[in-house]
Amino acid sequence: MKAFAALVHREFIEHRGAFFIGPLLLVGVVVAMTVLAFTVGRVDVRMTGSIVTGLSTMLFWPALILGVAWGLYLLATLFFYCADGFAADKRNNSMLFWKSMPVSDFTMLLAKLVAAITILPGAVYGIVLISMALMLATAQIAMMINGTSGMTNLMGLGTIFWNVALIELVQLVVSLLWYLPFMALVGAMAVVVGRWAIPLSLILPSLAATVEWVTLGGLHPFETRTWDYIAYRASMPEAGMVEQWVAEGPLGVDVNSGLAYALDLISRIDWLQVGVGVLFSLAVLYIASEYRRRAAAN
How far is Cα 197 from Cα 91, in angstroms, rounded to an integer? Predict the structure, then answer.
């Protein structure tokens, strides 16, 4: 267990630039943009009466959009990590050193995948909370300077932070589980072809759909069951939920709305497909580990 934890920690050390240092620098950009928004007149905080009370509600959407932007950054970075991290040992000629450790090739590849769904996204999620807290704190300070801040605003900002933090956490976990087989496939192919894994992984579904079209018929490769299934698994798990919640309820206003949204998202997920994805991920990792073991022996 200690060796496995060390392997996961090693992945964070080797890739902290993309998952920790880079996001920290982006936090500075977010804070600077927020300060400018309140200081150059883009956001008018000179309000009175009921409008002041609703100001904290208006800040929910920028906070949520900020979280979504971080989520897209994370997913894109994770796929590049899988293409790079799974091939790094072969590229930097450290394969024999890592094979001297008392762990199998499958354990090494599994540690990389575990890092991709735990410590690496966890670091980015921590940065998300920091950037969101700084953005809301800047808004609170600006309202205090203009004399429009009160306890109601402070409690409203706390509600926003709780709701967005919970929503982003659940969406992050669900997305990581949903896209796990894609990350595992990219990583497994990276063991064989290196950094070319991402473009080849994009071509592979098209080839599978084409094989079905040639053998079983159909209008074209994109009108097959294979392609429909791939399109289903590639869609965002929470697609359409935000629009529905905006239309039906005060998302972000009620302190319990974030929890209700998270429970709704969890109930909509096809957990059978998640389980199938986990088994598929373990299978392709095992095949890649066997290739890696035999290739290194030769």
Answer: 14
The predicted-structure confidence for 22-70, as pLDDT tens digits, reads as follows: 888 888 877 777 677 666 655 555 544 344 444 555 667 777 777 778 8
Q: What would the pLDDT profile of 238-262 be if each residue is shown by its tens digit?
A: 766 666 665 555 555 565 677 888 8
Give the percent of the chain with pLDDT over 70. Answer: 75
Total-model pTM: 0.81
How far is residue 104's CA from residue 99's CA, in Å, rounded to a whole number?
A: 8
- pLDDT for res 278: 94
For residue 52, how many other CB atoms are within 10 A of its CB? 19
Residue 219 neighbours by CB distance under 10 Å? 8
Cα three-residue angle 45-49-136, rounded to 5 degrees: 40
Domain ranges of the chain: 2-297
Q: How many CB atoms lie within 10 A of CB 282?
A: 16
Q: Which of 200, 195, 181 is nearest to 86 (CA)?
A: 195
CB 115 within 8 A of CB 12: yes
Task: Report the alpha-carbon distance of residue 275 to residue 155 in Å, rounded.
Answer: 40
Rounded to the nearest 5°, which phi and psi values hold at 46? -85, 75
| Residue 7 pLDDT greater than 60, yes or no | yes
CB 258 within 8 A of CB 252: yes
Environment class of 222 (CB within 10 Å of its CB; exposed 0-12, middle 13-18, buried 19+)? middle
Task: Output 241-249 pairs: Cβ under 8 A, ≥24 positions apart.
Answer: 241/265, 241/268
Left, alpha or beta for 218 (phi > 0: left; psi -120 to 50: alpha)? Answer: left
In this predicted structure, the answer to whether residue 115 has a pLDDT above a threshold of 70 is yes
Angle between helical axes of 105-117 and 60-85 (0-180°, round to 10): 170
